[in-house]
Structure prediction request, 117 residues.
Amino acid sequence: MSAAAEEQLPTGWVKRESKSRPGFSYYLHEETKTTQWEKPTTAKPPTAKRKYAASDTTKVRASHILAKHAGSRRPSSWREPNITRSLEEAKEIIRRKLTESRMLEKHKDHTQICVLH
Prediction:
């Protein structure tokens, strides 16, 4: 089989060189932005399977809000090269974000804010 025949991909797919793994290629479906390591065999990318039905009220979705402080393991980020806020200031940022997102109103059990170092 010729190299040209090997590189033919289904409609919508392109082959890209991995930046994180030099020498490896991945495949991108340009319309859906779906990526995969295996060469695609159909034009339609695989669909993600949902673990829970949208109407399933027994399951909980969780998000996280991170506010680093000066005592964090690595007190820097791409936004702030040198973080100097205190632990209490970081907790207040989290409380404010939760209030803005109405999470505190919806979920009354917010007595403890988890802080990881």
Observations:
- The two ends are 55 Å apart (CA to CA).
- DSSP finds three helices and three strands in the chain.
